[in-house]
Design goal:
This protein is of the alpha/beta class. It folds into three domains: 46 residues, no CATH class; 124 residues, Rossmann fold (3-Layer(aba) Sandwich); 132 residues, Response regulator (Rossmann fold, 3-Layer(aba) Sandwich), CATH 3.40.50.2300. The protein has 13 helices and twelve strands. The strands form two sheets. It has a six-stranded parallel sheet, sandwiched between helices. A six-stranded mixed sheet has the order 7-6-8-9-10-12, sandwiched between helices. The longest helix is centred in the middle third of the chain and has 15 residues. The radius of gyration is 25 Å and the shape is elongated. One of its GO terms (molecular function) is transcription cis-regulatory region binding. This is LacI family DNA-binding transcriptional regulator.
Length: 331
Amino acid sequence: MTVREIAKLAGVSPSSVSRYFTENENVSKSVAEKIEAVLGKEEGQTQVKSREKNKTLVLITPHKRLAFYSELLRMFMEQAPSYGIQIVFLPVYKCQTSQCRSILTRLKPHGFILLEEDESSMIYEFARKMKIPVVLCAEDSVDVKDGGYIHVNDVLAAYEGTRYLLGLGHRKIVFFTNYGKGVNASYQRIIGCTKAMSETGLAFEEPYVQYGALTRENGYAFAQKIIKDQLDFTAIFAFSDEMACGAICGLQDMGIRVPQDVSVLGFDDLPIAEQIRPRLTTMHQPLEEFIRCALDFFSSESTMEISREIMLPHSIIIRDSCASVKKGEGE
């Protein structure tokens, strides 16, 4: 039976029937009774239960144009329907605070999913006031009180990535990173890299550290800059695959071969890592597991049954962009 057919039999508007099922807005008790009378008692109870199980989550989309976030958004869109979950994407950075509050109040979401903390203060405030759980995906946080966060051990992953390059004989490693804030992923990766370098008697410091957004454009520009500055190096560890791919292109356009002359290591293991040539060696984050755990969190009868912190395993995916340093060059 279609929405229009139900509306005609119940003597209400099709939009009222649509609101009844989607819960985008409340319908009056009298309208609900008319609709349920048409559906029949047994079918009406089934529909009510279905409505109760359907959940709307608001995914706060970051303003950064990074392939990492695009891949997460794509996965959420693909997996959410199988959970009976509706995902609403909200670019907070384009909204005034008052507009965001109005939109969120109207939606009455069951939860928020955040991909970063930069634009999250208003969301945390709103969520706490409305007692709505929050999940921070692929980041760590000390601010998530009513919800959880899902991430890898970024300190250990960066440490192991650096140790991998050191194990290949590299001692002059350049790191491409963004600035660490609070306890975010970049901050923790910096700690891991610093620890690995210090254990070998080496320093994590400029000019062997280049700071900027983890974009392909910056990877390209940084690679060309350190070549023009005649910096002596044999490897680059970029904190995103996108940045690493930009670095490879920047090096190749300067006549530098990868990995014969310079090794390049990425972070994330996005599809682009398989598409570029040479194929990118990178630290793997289980993005599909991030999505599954986030959706499982909200699919539980009680989100309190789920651990507040979920740390998923990382690994290194060895492909073609890293090689042992030539004798005498890594010293």
